[in-house]
Amino acid sequence: MNSAPNQSNNLNSHPATGTQANPFTADLKGEFTSNFGTNTNAVSQIFKDGSFADQNRTRNIVIGAIVVLALVGGGWYFMTDAADPADEPVAEEVAPASEPGLEAAPPVATPAATPVAETPAVEAAATPAASGSITLTAPENGASLAYDETQGSATFSWEGGPGTIVFSRHSSMKPETMRVKVSGATYAFHHPWPGQWFWKIENDAGMSEPRSFTVSAPVRRSVALTAPAPSGAIAGTGGVVSWTGDKGVAYYRVELNQGDDWSNPQFKFSSSGSQAQLNAVPAGSYSMRLGAFSEVSGRWEYTAVTPVTVQ
């Protein structure tokens, strides 16, 4: 903007509005001076006769007509020059490109305008970047472990970043038994129950192959009745029942029942040691068993039922 020429100078030099000397007036002045000189009497006589006034009026009319024709001709020239069709396409093409916020019309699609190399670039942007292949590390495929509530949780680990761990009872992973989103690369499964399992990891990098593992049934506690002997006799009050115990047992319970329904035995006597004393058991024939609450399995485990006579 600062380097643009001063447009006011051009306007001031216009023949119709500028301050320069009028060439028509200069011509008249020279002619008037040369014809009449300084003879004031002659001038007075002309004014008196009125001939100069008529002549001057006629001359002014002619000059005015010439000026008007010149102005009209000049205006017509500039108008036709500004409206020259050769200039219009240039103005139409340049103006939209210089307008801020306007986009140029898209080019005609040609093989050069749409390179083949652009397609893989778009697909790569739409596909999440792989963080590396997923590698399952533990447990090994086909691993086996025993159910034991005295031990910690079973730990599953992998390489390849956080994701979702999926468990199923079937190699097809259908139906899913459990699905857990994990923020790290390890997961602690709190005592999976006995049977065969399959597991895999899913995340943005993809999906691992499933692995299998087997949980065996908890090892039973080794307990056995030692007294009374099978089909032996025992006092209903003060009689002592004894047994051999095992580690991993919270406590024991002696049960006596006269029926086959052991969901609610008639008499129960508990002990944390290796023997229990009967109290107020009526005389009669009973079935007896010893129960041990296993800390390994988290449930009661029972010896075989043995007959006993209460005296």
Structural class: alpha+beta
Average pLDDT, rounded to a whole number, is: 74
Silhouette: rod-shaped
Output the number of helix runs: 6
Given as residue ranges, the uncertain stretches (5+ residues, pLDDT < 50) are 1-53, 80-132
Which sequence of SSEs, written as H and E, runs from N to C? HHHHHHEEEEEEEEEEEEEEEEEE
Helicity level: 25-40%
Q: Please give the alpha-carbon distance between the first and last residues.
A: 125 Å
Beta strands, count: 18
Main pleated sheet? 6 strands, mixed
What proportion strand? Answer: 25-35%
Rg computed from alpha carbons, rounded to a whole number of angstroms: 59 Å
If you had to describe this structure to a student in words, what would you say it looks like?
The chain starts with 6 loop residues before the first helix and ends with a strand. Mean pLDDT is about 75; it is low at about 1-55 and about 80-130. It has helices spanning about 5-10, 25-35, 40-50, 50-80, 90-100, 120-125, and strands at about 135-140, 145, 155-160, 165-170, 175-180, 185-190, 195-205, 205, 210-215, 225, 235, 240-245, 250-255, 265-270, 275, 285-295, 300, 305-310. About 25% of the residues lie in helices and about 30% in strands. The protein is built from six helices and 18 strands. With about 300 residues, it is of the alpha+beta class. A hairpin with a 7-residue loop joins strand 4 (about 165-170) and strand 5 (about 175-180). The strands form four sheets. Strands 2, 4, 5, 7, 8 and 9 form a six-stranded mixed β-sheet that branches.
